[in-house]
Design brief:
Strand content: 5-15%
Shape: globular
Strand order of the largest sheet: 3-4-5-8-9-10-11-12
Structural class: alpha/beta
Distance between the termini: 36 Å
Helix content: 25-40%
Length: 371
């Protein structure tokens, strides 16, 4: 029995296997609204045989978008557009769907990657960013506005409103984005957070706002039908930044508040980061977090091979693995992994004829015929 293709429970959600499609920004929304691109892109991924599909980072307010092309869930219009995409996907796939809710903070107002990804000037259609402190992300960039008490409440309310909309759409799980240098990560990291009030300074103070957001989201949706987890950057990869020890304290506090899973990534808060890239380069971070909590832990980061993924699960380094760029390159990665590991994977009946002759049970108990 393959460990990778064994079932997993995340809160109230049962997954048929431990392959998770990580959120991948597409920068192709229309003022926050999902488009035909999302139907094509997500529709294909929903037929891949993975255990869970997490929708891309979805802004909870318009100034929280990374780029003008970011998906959003802050209005009736954005909710309706995403609802139409999900309705079409669900006609042909029963794969559970999660959504990553986030706010870009000081990393907002950026060009889409294929236009360079840099900060957009106000006169060129950019907007004023908001963050824990009035500290620019990069040298020479305009600084964000530091969130005051009213701003903090507005952001918290925006997360709650988006969570309620996600539940109304029948989405199965929420992943709160507290990684990659975006707003909640900015509060966690002493590099971006230099506040002198109750939300800055000590580790406990820097954890406070992300924990308040989690508590508000968890309280806004039913626990018996909506799984809520968190993605975090376990380390900033910068001396004096957020480190694994501090992240363990964050995870412990999340666990005490009813968090259902932790998705472990790293970096993103500073251009000074020095990341030692290599196969599975973040898995050791997931392993350290897993040893410190009883929550299901998802590992991500250059996990590209089926045996590599299988070994991570078998060794107990993580409870699930997430793939992103790898499944863009190979949209049937779970099929190929199942074939390599002698496992069974779901496939749409329209594709049953593609089952290799030497893999008679790859798609389970399938039967086809024709005259």
């Amino acid at each position: 029995m393959s460990a990778l293709f064994s079932p997993l429970r995340l809160g109230s959600l049962n997954l048929t296997n431990r392959i998770i499609i990580a959120p991948m920004c597409q920068y192709s929304a229309d003022n926050g609204k999902a488009t035909d691109w999302h139907l094509i892109h997500l529709g294909g991924l929903a037929l891949s045989g993975a255990g869970l599909l997490i929708l891309e980072a979805t802004a909870v307010e318009d100034i929280g978008r990374i780029s003008p092309g970011d998906l959003g869930l802050w209005s009736d219009e954005t909710e309706a557009a995403l609802g139409e995409v999900l309705k079409s996907i669900r006609r042909h796939s029963n794969m559970p769907v999660a959504i990553q809710l986030g706010h870009a903070g000081r990393k907002a107002s950026s060009q889409v990657p294929w236009h360079g990804g840099q900060l957009i000037a106000i006169e060129d259609g950019g907007w004023q960013m908001a963050a824990p402190s009035a500290l620019a992300h990069g040298k020479g960039e305009r600084p964000p506005l530091a969130l005051d008490e009213a701003g903090l409440q507005r952001v918290k309310n925006a997360f709650v409103d988006a969570a309620v909309r996600a539940h109304r759409l029948g989405i199965n799980a929420i992943e709160i984005h507290a990684a990659h240098g975006y707003l909640l990560h900015q509060f966690l990291s002493p590099i971006a957070n230099q506040r002198t009030d109750q939300y800055g300074g000590s580790v406990e103070n820097r954890l406070r706002f992300p924990l308040e957001v989690f508590e508000a989201v968890r309280a806004a949706v039913p626990k018996d039908s909506m799984t809520v987890g968190v993605r975090l950057s376990a380390t900033d990869w910068v001396d004096g930044g957020l480190d694994v020890a501090q992240s363990k304290r964050f995870v412990q506090a999340l666990q005490e508040r009813g968090c259902d899973f932790i998705h472990v990534s790293s970096g993103g808060v500073s251009p000074e980061q020095k990341i030692p890239l290599g196969p599975g380069y973040q898995v050791h971070l997931a392993e350290e977090i897993k040893q410190h909590c009883s929550l299901p832990v998802i590992a991500v980061g250059l996990i590209t091979d089926a045996q590599q993924a299988e070994d991570i699960i078998k060794a107990g380094k993580a409870d699930a693995i997430a793939i992103a760029r790898g499944i863009l390159y190979d949209p049937h990665w779970p099929w190929h992994a199942a074939a390599q590991l002698n496992a069974t994977v779901d496939a749409p009946k329209q594709y049953w004829r593609s089952q290799p002759r030497d893999q008679k049970n790859l798609f389970g108990d399938t039967r086809i015929g024709q005259r």
